[in-house]
Amino acid sequence: MTDLFLERKNGYAELSIEESIRMEEYCRGYMKFLDAGKTERLCVDEAIRLAKDAGYVEFAPGMKLEVGDKVYLNNRGKELILAYIGEESLARGVQIAAAHIDAPRLDLKPNPLYEDTDFAYLKTHYYGGIRKYQWVTIPLELHGKVCFPDKPPVDIHIGCDEGDPRFVITDLLPHLSADQDAKKLKEAHPGENLNLLIGSRPVDDGEKGSKVKQQILEILYEKYGMTEIDFISAELEAVPAGDACEIGLDRSMIGAYGHDDRSCAYAELRALLDISDTPRRTAICVLADKEEIGSDGVTGMQSDSFDTFMEDICSQQGVSLRACYSNSFCLSADVTAAYDPNYSGVFEKNNAAYLNRGVGLCKYTGSRGKSGASDAGAEVLGYMRKLLAKNEVIWQIAELGKVDEGGGGTVAKYMANRNIDTLDAGVPVLSMHSPFEVVSKLDVYETYKTALAVFKAASGVKY
Ligand code: MN
Ligand code: MN
Q: Model pTM greater than 0.90?
């Protein structure tokens, strides 16, 4: 009998035992990816390592590509574009999955180091949308790169190996926090107070007022050959310390920093690498940087880097980039807000995404009257439903919160603006943008299956 009603049910009702085993295996791989990729640079490194294992080679402009070739383009160490050249001409379009690998964090300022009352600190400038009170009193790691004018760059990774020291931003004790407690949540921890505590032990023979700072500078010089001025040509990011872990007695969820958007980035990367036969349509995977601050800059989705790569491969087949784009499809894989019963007031129950109900399809993002959304057409949703049904993917419809409650954006509109049919879809997340986000294994796995379905599709959207 025809189902007249849309029944929104828990995905475990449809998950077979075989699929459940594959889901667990997939999630183990995902958790390793999270631990290895705490910053965009580390994600690129890890993705390249996995891609090479799957036979991908580095792309150089002008390189002759044949059907079945697998290449990757490393854009400045922070964005990665991978392509599996398909059987059809690029004129008929490509299948793209785009996600971002940057995540909210605390960047060091260009001149960060100072001493105050026998403590050494590093000043930070937060990156992306954070709720500042969540970032105090938690252990933090420091990752990044220092570039010198006269010698090779040095990578810095502190806090991730066993025995490493870690860093922290302190907070008031409840005994003395009456004034702070009375403030609005977003005003209780001003951005300029997010100062990383990095030392307290003075050198013996230093100048008064900077003996602790001198100790830190001596350590930095000894370990990394850097002096205070070298912070200016460094990019150092403080991120939550600790590995991903299972959540719940039933181990059904994963807690970690950076599910936004590495749960989707890994899904599309793994899907691309897992395609065994040459795809009919060329499969493209984009792991973009800078989404959390608007997708601007040379490594963001608005950058010409993507168009330059696509033009390079199109020109080899004598295809115009515009023709390729107009026949292409893009899955903009990004996380969405999961319904949280503790904060039910901000969600609209009929359209919210729920944990364990599968990948969430978002027709539109944006805020207020869909401002800033690319708003996928009915044809695009229809196309995706067909793909998901064919590939037995568990999915749900998703909207990020009640109308006028807030909103958000993804890379979708930057792909759609290129005249590429684009649909947002991704993993529902609890505590999004916090230092410790929670997702369900089932949703993470179904997002991988969604990316697989997109790469295997025989055509783009039909009108
Ligand atoms: Mn995101
Ligand atoms: Mn985000």
A: yes
- The pLDDT assigned to 8 comes to 87
- For residue 53, the model assigns a pLDDT of 98
Q: Is 133 exposed, middle or buried (0-12, 13-18, 19+ CB in 10 A)?
A: middle
d(CA 400, CA 453): 24
What is the distance in A from the centroid of ligand 1 to the CA of 181? 31
The token pair at 442 is 């089932």
Report which bound ligand comes closest to the CA of 432: 2
What is the Cα–Cα distance from 19 to 268, expressed in whole angstroms?
18
The C-alpha angle with vertex 73 and arms to 128 and 312, in degrees rounded to 5, equals: 115
Task: State in Å: Cα 120 to ligand 1 middle.
Answer: 34
pLDDT tens digits, 353-367 = 999 999 999 999 999
CA–centroid distance, residue 8 to ligand 2 (Å) = 26
Rounded Cα gap, residues 102 and 131, in angstroms: 17
At residue 266, the 3 state secondary structure works out as: helix
Expressed in angstroms and rounded, the spacing between residue 221 Cα and the centre of ligand 1 is 37
How many angstroms is it from 367 CA to the middle of ligand 1?
15
Q: What is the dihedral of CA 241, 244, 247, 251, to 10 degrees?
A: -160
Cis before residue 250, ω within 30 degrees of 0?
A: no
Ligand nearest to the CA of 128: 2
- The answer to whether the CB of 391 falls within 8 A of the CB of 398 is no
Q: Average pLDDT of the chain?
A: 97
pLDDT tens-digit series, residues 117-168: 999 999 999 999 999 999 999 999 999 999 999 999 999 999 999 999 999 9
